[in-house]
């Protein structure tokens, strides 16, 4: 039949259906199964609406499905992904009728849900971010403006030499070939672009730094500051002096609170200045994983503080940083307050450990060795246990190792008496082969003399196992770094050595130059016979000939005579050396061991160990001419 009213087509398409129109044929029963041979009339014509959905699809099959006004993305597991930098931010639409669709938001737009989150497609291409600045330098681009402050090749540039970020690049101050020793002042400043700071933000600056610079405070200084604009001077936030000029071969995190300092349009300055042209042969400074956060967040990435010892969380749109129990960045974080432990940090972001120091004591009870033939004592908290002999066969077995005490073997037992004196006459020991005198500190000294029939090969022996020898004097330690008699596994013999460094941490880094001397008791050398000084030394110091200097001198009255220098001693291994000191035969001599770091650089190795110091005679006649 013809196209009557019963053949009308109802179009139920809506603007939201996003597909073809649904056609419902309402023809009556008379039309069922019939062949319509007539031309279709107007009522039979179906029109298809063109419907435009908001935004663009995030679902995909190939990369070509991910073209957008913000830039082209990649299809990953059936979903489009977009990476910075981009021309805008891809933000998912919150429309139930259009799931898996997004729109492109212009840079600088604020989140309608959280005002302090914004679109910054240079940092994050998907969604809003709380990051105000993010530079890893892994794209090879500097991204900062550099100004040279001295006309030398050393400046700020992107480097592949060291990095903490996965891409292997960082910001470096130095020369392209490495280091900043140019024979003159080296200085430059790197400045970020102005940073937009939204209202209500609580900004934080975080970065990781690697330093190998001069450790003298105030020189070869890296400075981080905020330029607030206008004529005001930049506000200094941090300098490399806070780390002593070195990070000991590790990237360390630095986190700085910008509240009260941050303003909209602020710029961050990184400046390095040697201030002079000397002691500049160092690798320089590296900066990586640079972030400025607003305190607002849409995810944990917005809360990065560069510190592996905190758990960065985004909770209810705000960042939190919970400290990880027991975590450490370096040994300074691990001080347990116990003078008898060596505190260490396993790694940056690692765990603290405290290793007991052998022979160390807090009180006398710590020193009981269970030997009835020793008198046990502790000189004080953090000292080394002393075990004074009580059983003996001869007087030499009863050396007390304590000033103003004298020991003698009586009936197989050591007997100790106070031996301080005021005059030489109080010190007569009845031995024709000794010259008796009242020495320094009121201690009687009985110096062997090579009179007729007298010769004693052992003039002075110090193995340092019974504590500080009587009559020895040490220069005052600085930050506990100086000369000590120290129990150590490094001892050449016995359990202890004469040691220069920190007695618990075993380094000699004070952040600057440090030096000191240890001087022996006075001893009169036998006359008219050969006399020698023998000692063992272990140097764990710089190999450079002009730094970390070690000397052994003879001191006769006010005259200082050099015997050994660093050039005579090996670095890195025990070495035993002997010097003919017959030149001083018959004179009263003190022997002095000195150390001078010269500077504050590369002082994190163990230091200097001296052991088995001995003055002895061959009992043969002294040669006619002998000079030191």
Provide a quick synopsis of the model:
The chain is mainly beta and 628 residues long.
Describe the protein in words:
With 628 residues, the chain is mainly β. The protein has no helices and 43 strands. The N and C termini lie far apart (136 Å). Residues 1-38 have low confidence and may be disordered.
Question: What would CATH call the architecture of the largest domain?
Answer: Sandwich
The CATH class label of the largest domain is Mainly Beta
Given helix and strand content, the structural type is: mainly beta
Rg from alpha-carbon coordinates: 40 Å
Terminal Cα span: 136 Å
Which segments are poorly predicted (pLDDT under 50) over 5 or more consecutive residues? 1-38
Which properties best describe this structure?
single chain, mainly beta, 6-stranded antiparallel beta sheet, elongated, Jelly Rolls, 628 residues, 5 domains, disordered N terminus
Topology:
Layout: E1 9-11, E2 23-25, E3 56-57, E4 74-76, E5 79-81, E6 88-92, E7 101-106, E8 131-135, E9 145-148, E10 155-159, E11 170-174, E12 187-191, E13 204-212, E14 221-227, E15 235-239, E16 252-257, E17 267-273, E18 284-293, E19 310-315, E20 318-323, E21 327-328, E22 341-345, E23 350-356, E24 360-361, E25 374-377, E26 383-384, E27 386-389, E28 405-410, E29 413-418, E30 434-438, E31 444-448, E32 458-462, E33 473-474, E34 482-487, E35 496-501, E36 515-519, E37 523-524, E38 529-540, E39 549-556, E40 559-565, E41 575-580, E42 588-596, E43 607-621
């Amino acid at each position: 039949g013809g196209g009557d009213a019963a053949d009308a087509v109802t179009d139920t398409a809506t603007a939201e259906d996003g597909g073809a129109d649904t056609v419902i044929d309402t023809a009556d029963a008379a039309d069922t199964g019939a062949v319509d041979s007539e031309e279709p009339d107007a009522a039979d014509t179906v029109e298809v609406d063109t419907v435009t959905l908001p935004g663009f699809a995030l679902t995909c099959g190939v990369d070509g499905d991910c073209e957008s006004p913000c830039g082209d993305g990649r299809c990953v597991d059936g979903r489009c992904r977009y990476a910075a930098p981009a021309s805008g931010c891809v933000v998912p639409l919150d429309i139930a009728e259009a799931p898996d669709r997004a729109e492109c938001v212009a840079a600088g737009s604020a989140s309608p849900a959280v005002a302090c989150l914004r679109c910054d497609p240079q940092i994050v291409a998907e969604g809003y971010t709380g990051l105000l600045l993010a530079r890893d330098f892994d794209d090879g681009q500097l991204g900062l403006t550099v100004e040279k402050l001295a006309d030398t090749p050393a400046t700020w540039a992107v480097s592949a030499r060291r990095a903490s970020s996965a891409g292997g690049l960082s910001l470096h101050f130095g020369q392209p070939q490495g280091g900043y020793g140019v024979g003159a002042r080296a200085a430059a400043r790197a400045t970020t672009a102005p940073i937009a700071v939204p209202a209500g933000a609580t900004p934080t600056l975080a970065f990781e730094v690697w330093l190998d610079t001069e450790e003298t405070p105030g020189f070869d200084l890296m400075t981080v500051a905020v330029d607030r604009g206008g004529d005001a001077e930049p506000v200094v936030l941090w300098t490399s002096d806070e780390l002593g000029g070195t990070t000991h071969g590790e990237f360390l995190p630095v986190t700085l609170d910008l509240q009260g300092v941050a303003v909209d349009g602020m710029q961050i300055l990184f400046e390095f200045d040697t201030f002079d042209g000397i002691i500049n042969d160092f690798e320089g400074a590296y900066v990586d994983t640079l972030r400025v956060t607003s305190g607002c967040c849409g995810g944990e990435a917005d809360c990065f503080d560069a510190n592996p010892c905190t758990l960065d969380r985004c909770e209810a749109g705000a960042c939190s940083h919970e400290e990880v129990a027991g975590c450490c960045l370096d040994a300074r974080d691990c001080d347990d307050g116990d003078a008898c432990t060596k505190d260490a940090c396993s790694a940056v972001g690692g765990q603290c450990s405290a290793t007991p120091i052998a022979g160390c004591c807090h009180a006398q009870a710590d020193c009981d060795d269970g030997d009835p033939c020793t008198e046990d004592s502790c000189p004080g908290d953090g000292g080394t246990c002393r075990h004074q002999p009580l059983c003996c066969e001869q007087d030499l077995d009863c050396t007390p190792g304590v000033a103003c005490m004298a020991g003698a073997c009586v009936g197989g037992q050591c007997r100790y008496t106070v031996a301080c004196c005021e005059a030489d006459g109080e010190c007569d020991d009845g031995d024709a082969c000794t010259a008796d005198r009242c020495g320094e500190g009121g201690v009687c000294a009985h110096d062997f003399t090579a009179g007729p029939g007298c010769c004693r090969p052992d003039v002075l022996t110090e193995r340092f196992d019974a504590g500080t020898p009587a009559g020895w004097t040490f220069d005052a330690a600085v930050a506990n770094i100086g000369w000590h008699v120290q129990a150590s596994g490094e001892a050449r013999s016995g359990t202890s050595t004469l040691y220069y460094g920190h007695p618990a941490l075993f380094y000699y880094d004070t952040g600057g130059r440090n030096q000191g001397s240890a001087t022996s008791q006075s001893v009169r050398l036998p006359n008219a016979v050969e006399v020698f000084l023998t000692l063992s030394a272990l140097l764990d110091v710089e190999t450079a000939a002009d730094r970390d200097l070690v000397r052994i001198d003879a001191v006769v009255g006010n005259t200082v005579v050099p015997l050994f220098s660093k050039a005579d001693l090996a670095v890195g291994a025990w070495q035993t050396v002997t010097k003919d000191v017959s030149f001083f035969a018959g004179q009263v001599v003190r022997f002095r061991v000195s150390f001078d770091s010269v500077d504050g650089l590369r002082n994190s190795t163990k230091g200097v160990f001296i052991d088995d110091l001995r003055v002895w005679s061959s009992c043969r006649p002294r040669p006619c001419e002998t000079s030191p």
